[in-house]
Amino acid sequence: MIPVNEKMLGLGEKSSAIREIFEYGNKRRAEIGAENVFDFSLGNPSVPAPMCVNETLVKLLEKEPDSVHAYTSGPGDRNVRASVAEYLNKTFGSEMTYENIYMTCGAAASLTSTLNAVINGGDEVIVFAPFFPEYRVFIEKAGGELVAVKCREDDLTIDARRFEESVTEKTKAVIINSPNNPTGVVISEKQLRDISGVLKRKSAEYGHIIYLISDEPYRELVYGGVKVPFVPDFYGETIICYSFSKSLSLPGERIGYIAVCEKATEWKRLFSAVCGAARSLGFVCAPSIFQKIVPECLGKTSDISVYEKNRNTLVGALTEYGYKLASPDGAFYLFLKSPDISAAAFCERAKKYEILLVPSDSFGFDGYVRIAYCVNPGMIDRALPGFRALAEEYKIKK
Ligand code: PLP
């Protein structure tokens, strides 16, 4: 046996359940044609990036190449970082400067850099199930232990009492994700006050700070006038992990940022730890050209009305067929109660109709399936007869 790191080998050999379904979709697309496969597996935005992205890229490419493609400083171009801070201040009333902002390769790099900055070996990090599966990989690689706290079954919101009971002396950080992948739930102000209350009480009881890591790649993806509260307004010890992957439809370009809240105790030290962690992970100087589109695109999004329309079509039809699901306020995922006791078995049966779904055990929560509706609206129309036939197979009562 070759002398490699066994844990890394394991991670490399076993791709995520979501990716496996996506690969199956690629196989079926090659076999029967893309238009006949109804792939709801991956959160890959289907609507194009807004015009500001292309226009800025074209302008940048007309400049001197070395001013565009050169290394920036490790945490990113100073003007870009300043523009992010100004945008946050203008929008949310924070008081940050470029010194609070670290430009990253998307939310994944934001999260790994933040987790490595705050975790010491053996620390616990609380996440709320269902949760984005990569959290486990990120937390464990940083030397921490993931502690999952189940959301309420009835509305998939955070259960503050269960949360409080799960905080221990070893709890170093808590990750929240709103709007949520995989449920689409947006955390309300009341819930944030509850979470903040627990964190303040427990930090005082154990005599150390418990950080709140706010994973926000879906921040702008909300429908029907719903507002996403600004987390640092409720808890100062907050680190925001942002990404432009979803808001600007740029998941392959790897661009996002970390905002270390100015209200955090000794935030400059915390920021330096983030810089050190990012450096140790090799995440210095996020892609230069995509950093430089950021100032022109802050506050803009792709045409998210397409997602809202998709959500309404699916929620309306699936409810009519008898499926149990809530209409989510944000992101682009539906979390549907599996009509089969085994969500995996339901997903297998759905394949008969070329419908590809992700079973919820991938997200640490049994009995549901995730439908990523960031797809072409025509695909939804073509998939609905399959959903109806499945409901009939399961004799779902309306
Ligand atoms: N966090 C959540 C909740 C996500 O859904 C994703 C991607 O789907 C990420 C983080 C990673 O985002 P990025 O592609 O920007 O690294």
Write the layout of secondary structure elements.
Elements: H1 6-13, H2 17-32, E1 38-39, H3 51-61, H4 65-69, H5 78-92, E2 101-104, H6 106-118, E3 124-129, H7 134-141, E4 145-150, H8 160-166, E5 171-177, H9 189-206, E6 211-215, E7 238-243, E8 256-260, H10 267-281, H11 288-297, H12 305-321, E9 333-337, H13 343-351, E10 355-356, E11 358-359, E12 368-372, H14 377-393
Parallel strand pairs: 1-10, 3-4, 3-5, 5-6, 6-7
Antiparallel strand pairs: 2-8, 7-8, 9-12, 11-12
Helix pairs in contact: 3-11, 5-11, 6-7, 6-10, 12-14
The structure holds pyridoxal-5'-phosphate.
Pyridoxal-5'-phosphate is lined by residues 43, 106-108, 132, 177, 181, 215, 217, 243, 245, 251, 256.
Q: How would you briefly describe this protein structure?
A:
The chain has two domains: 6-50 and 302-393, Aspartate Aminotransferase, domain 1; 51-297, Type I PLP-dependent aspartate aminotransferase-like (Major domain) (Aspartate Aminotransferase, domain 2, 3-Layer(aba) Sandwich), CATH 3.40.640.10. Helices cover 42% and strands 14% of the residues. The protein has helices at residues 6-13, 17-32, 51-61, 65-69, 78-92, 106-118, 134-141, 160-166, 189-206, 267-281, 288-297, 305-321, 343-351, 377-393, and strands at residues 38-39, 101-104, 124-129, 145-150, 171-177, 211-215, 238-243, 256-260, 333-337, 355-356, 358-359, 368-372.
